[in-house]
Design brief:
The protein is mainly β and 58 residues long. The protein has a domain at 11-22 and 40-58. It is 0% helix and 41% strand. A hairpin with a 5-residue loop joins strand 2 and strand 3. The radius of gyration is 18 Å and the shape is rod-shaped.
């Protein structure tokens, strides 16, 4: 009898980027603390590394 294959982990939408793979960050200017401006820039989501998916393992 062949061994059972393990089930693939359940893939769910990333909670931080809502499945888009990118998040928006506020632009800061100036030395040290930095003053926040009204501008936004996109950045890769560090939770899912831009895939938009995360496993449901916790």
């Amino acid at each position: 009898m062949a061994p059972r294959k393990t089930a693939k982990p359940k893939v769910i939408k990333c909670p931080d980027c809502d499945g888009k793979g990118e998040i928006t960050e506020t632009v800061r200017v100036g030395p040290r603390k930095g003053r926040a401006t009204d501008h936004q820039q996109s950045a890769v989501c560090l939770t899912c590394w831009g895939t938009g998916e995360t496993t449901g393992d916790g």
